[in-house]
Specification:
Blueprint: H1 26-35, H2 41-49, E1 71-73, E2 76-77, H3 81-90, E3 98-101, H4 108-114, E4 119-122
Parallel strand pairs: 3-4
Antiparallel strand pairs: 1-2
Helix pairs in contact: 1-2, 1-3
Length: 123
Amino acid sequence: MAASARDRPRDQPHARRSPAPPAASPERLVRAVLAIGVRGRRVLEALRTTPRTRFVPTAHAAAAYTDAPLPIGRGQVTTQPSLSALMIEGLELTGTEHVLEIGTGYGFQTALLARPAGDVVTR
């Protein structure tokens, strides 16, 4: 059945909307990171393949793929994923670097760093 004019977005009368990724998906983080200008293929792939749900407290797992800091206890929060991606892209890693990270928290940023770096030591 054809869509009527009232079913189409008003600003694009003949355009089809691409389906949005599920609310709880790594692709949501990738879209947020792309929106702030991160384009590094290796950083984007790290976001797609690193399950943030494993790095946040169970109570906040439903919000794991939002681009926001999440509480990790003792008054601390995770780093916002887009900020982590921006910082990692800024390092211009080639895959041979030995990276030292201080302040691991729950480890998501460390896991992201480990993808494009040669290796990561964290404390």
